[in-house]
Specification:
Blueprint lengths: L2 E8 L3 H12 L4 E4 L12 E3 L2 E3 L17 H9 L5 E3 L3 E7 L5 E6 L2 H11 L4 H8 L1 H14 L6 H7 L1 H6 L4 H7 L4 H7 L15 H14 L2 E3 L2 H15 L3 E3 L4 E6 L5 E6 L2 E10 L3 H6 L8 H9 L5 E9 L3 H4 L5 E5 L4 H6 L6 E5 L14 E9 L13 H20 L7 E7 L1 H8 L17 H6 L1 H4 L5 E3 L10 H19 L4
Parallel strand pairs: 1-2, 1-12, 2-9, 6-14, 12-18
Antiparallel strand pairs: 3-4, 5-8, 6-7, 10-11, 11-12, 13-16, 13-17, 14-15, 15-16
Helix pairs in contact: 1-11, 1-20, 3-4, 8-10
Length: about 500
């Protein structure tokens, strides 16, 4: 007998979890399929010795508080998924540029405090920086209007009421900042966050960066107390509470199609499973590789093949036998750079152009055993940056050398002693993420959001980009790109959309 569901969600990553939680909550018979034995994808945790590490989450934006909830807070709260949120207080990051002309500064949270902290370093730029941040509510109003018109806004209204949106939507971060008169040094300070989106700011769409920056500045950064695994388990609880099924160790190996070209279901565990609709948290490249080629519209294949894969990371996880205070590290997030310019950081990424050091204990003091702390190094790299002639037997040596290089650099730059205190260490590379996530080249950012494939273009082309009946995409490879917040918001959006469609709504 055929197994039939209303909705099958493929992949229990952040987007898939949010989508499945929404369809299950709407009363639809929902099946979530996950190839691993735990949910979350990168949103999980792992143990080494007595330490529990956070694999990938640096900090969440767009969260807010119970008193002033932002989008991500609302996504979880509306679903009844209760999270123990912790917040980074005071400043949003410390940024260090090495060398004679470098600097070591902290930028503070809150619009006025942020503008003042930039102005203290680059005098006279406060009003220019404030003008950049003030674009965010204007842009949000324009986007709300576009959505209200179902993607068919009146041109005259856009010109008269949303002129700032029209002026900035098609430009890069640096183009908009330059037009607003923000000095280059101030731009470099503000643009430190480019690494969180994987695209340098001379090509990153201004609206995309501004969305993230504004929410970090206004709300500060948030973290779940019990690692990102807490977020995943909270959504699993919602799914199961509303009658949804979650199958672990159940990798999807094929997508099934009807004669009319619509998606009918999937194959998992050598079993055909059918649904009225399928939501994929798996990147389109992989979906098309698991599909009958004759069923994929040519324009969909061309679009997927035209897109560039986004950046991946190398990561070093350290469990230390001393506290953060004893170590001499009082910041949660430290960006360490060899050059102030984002493009140069990107181009020199293999020569410590940029890396990030996080100490979770400075936000959640009891996140490791008493008398200890954990450090988390993140180095932005692409999957094809891994040496092509690297042999399997040399992989461990390659990882150890990478870890040693960045630990020694951090010791020198921060003036602290790390090596003697290492109790546990684990190193991941794009190879690790490719194996675990199954993404091409180990990308953690889906497709690169730049050039013709930026956020605004994806939003405008959503209806036609991947128009296979019965199939929806969500997660980091879709419209908003990756980042935990984007994935949850996109999964929430797609889950609600599919639920409305199947229940007879618009």
């Amino acid at each position: 007998m055929q197994k039939q569901y209303d909705v099958i969600v493929v992949g229990a990553g952040n987007g898939g979890l949010a989508a499945a939680a929404n369809t299950a909550s709407a009363g639809l018979r929902t099946l979530l399929l996950e190839k691993h034995n735990i949910p979350g994808g990168c949103a999980t945790s792992f143990r080494r010795g007595r330490f529990e590490f956070e694999p990938s989450l640096h900090e969440l934006c767009s969260v807010g508080t119970a008193e002033r909830p932002n989008t991500v807070y609302k996504v979880f709260d509306d679903l009844g998924a209760k999270i123990n949120w912790e917040y980074e207080k005071g400043h949003i990051f410390r940024t260090i540029v090495k060398g004679e002309d470098g600097y070591d500064v902290r930028l503070n949270a809150g619009i006025e405090a942020f503008c003042a902290s930039v102005d203290a370093i680059v005098p006279g730029c406060k009003e220019n920086v404030r003008a950049f941040l003030n674009l965010k509510p204007k842009v949000a109003a324009a986007i709300d209007y576009i959505y209200a018109t179902k993607g068919n806004p009146n041109g005259l209204v856009m010109l008269l009421k949303h002129a700032d949106f029209m002026r900035t939507a098609g430009h890069s971060v640096e183009e908009v900042m330059t037009a607003l008169g923000i000095p280059k040094k101030a731009q470099d300070l503000i643009n430190t966050y480019w690494g969180y989106l994987g695209v340098p700011t001379d090509e990153l769409n201004a609206m995309h960066f501004l969305n993230m920056l504004y929410d970090y500045v206004v709300d500060g950064a948030a973290m779940p107390k019990y690692r990102s695994h807490e977020l995943s388990l909270a959504l699993i609880d919602v799914i199961e509470k509303h009658g949804g099924e979650v199958w672990y160790n159940s990798e999807v190996t094929k997508f099934l199609y009807r004669e009319d070209g619509s998606v009918a279901g999937v194959v998992a565990n050598c079993e055909e499973i059918y649904a009225r609709e399928v939501i994929s948290n798996v990147i389109p490249h992989n979906v098309f590789n698991m599909s009958d080629p004759d069923k994929i519209p040519e324009q969909n294949l061309k679009l997927a093949n035209a897109r560039e894969f986004g950046i991946s990371v190398a990561t070093v996880y350290l469990g230390l036998d001393c506290t953060a205070e004893e170590l001499g590290l009082e910041d949660y997030t430290v960006f360490i750079k060899s050059h102030p310019d984002p493009r140069t950081q990107y181009d020199t990424r293999l020569d410590d152009g940029l890396y990030i050091v996080n100490c979770l204990n400075n936000v959640i003091p009891d996140s490791s055993p008493e008398g200890t702390c954990t450090l988390f190094f993140t180095i932005p790299v692409f999957g094809n940056d891994v040496p092509k002639d690297l042999k399997p037997e040399d992989y461990k040596k390659y990882k150890n050398a990478l870890a040693k290089k960045y630990i020694e650099d951090a010791e020198k730059t921060l003036g602290i002693s790390i090596m003697p205190h290492i109790e546990e260490i684990s190193v991941a590379t794009p190879v690790t993420f490719a194996r675990y996530l199954g993404t091409p080249e180990g990308t953690i950012y889906g497709y690169k959001l730049s050039g013709w494939d930026n956020l605004m273009a994806r939003t405008a082309g959503e209806k036609t980009d991947y128009a296979i009946p019965g199939l929806s995409f969500c997660g980091g490879h879709y419209i908003r790109g990756d980042g935990y917040s984007c994935a949850y918001i996109m999964g929430d959006t797609i889950g609600k959309r599919v639920a409305k469609r199947l229940k007879g709504g618009n």
